[in-house]
């Protein structure tokens, strides 16, 4: 399972570090809680051990996956049809972000960057929110994987996405 000091990713929240494991007595039942601190947004969460598997909590990616991430930030998934291309992707993007997979977040950025380049008046508000969430999610993980500063993490994203 996980231990104190592990760098982990919690879907839709980003990457953080397990700071402690506390045992709590809840209605006579002893439950271990993982105390996870997320440095990018300065949030601490308590996750019950018995729900960790269902929560999607995972260890951060290996440094060997950074090149794959850079490629994913550039790879746009083409819609199967023009009808599909015309419809909004905000729900699909939200679903991808909730998976907690860094490659899914990279896909959101690549697709929205491409969409933004095709539009004269920029992205819709929901798409902009999803783009920001995806960037924050990836930046938080890069900060822990490569010991990047927040600025270096966002620079990596910008440099490797199509919009650079």
Automatic annotation (TrEMBL):
GO BP: rRNA transcription
Stretch forming the signal peptide: none
Domain CarD-like/TRCF RNAP-interacting: 1-113
Pfam families referenced in this protein's UniProt entry, alphabetically: CarD_C (PF21095), CarD_TRCF_RID (PF02559)
Name of the protein this chain belongs to: Transcriptional regulator
């Amino acid at each position: 399972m996980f231990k104190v000091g592990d760098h982990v990713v919690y879907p839709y929240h980003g990457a953080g570090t397990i700071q402690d494991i506390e045992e709590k007595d809840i209605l006579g039942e002893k439950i271990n809680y993982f105390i996870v601190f997320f440095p990018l947004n300065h949030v601490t969460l308590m996750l019950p051990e018995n729900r960790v598997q269902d929560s999607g909590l995972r260890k951060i990616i290996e440094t060997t996956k950074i090149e794959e991430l850079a490629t994913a930030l550039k790879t746009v998934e083409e819609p199967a049809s023009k009808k599909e291309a015309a419809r909004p992707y905000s729900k699909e993007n939200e679903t991808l972000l909730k998976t907690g997979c860094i490659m899914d977040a990279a896909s959101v950025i690549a697709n929205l960057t491409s969409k933004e380049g095709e539009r004269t008046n920029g992205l819709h508000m929901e798409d902009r929110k999803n783009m920001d969430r995806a960037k924050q999610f990836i930046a938080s993980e890069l900060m822990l994987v490569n010991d990047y500063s927040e600025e270096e993490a966002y620079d990596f994203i910008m440099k490797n996405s199509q919009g650079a």
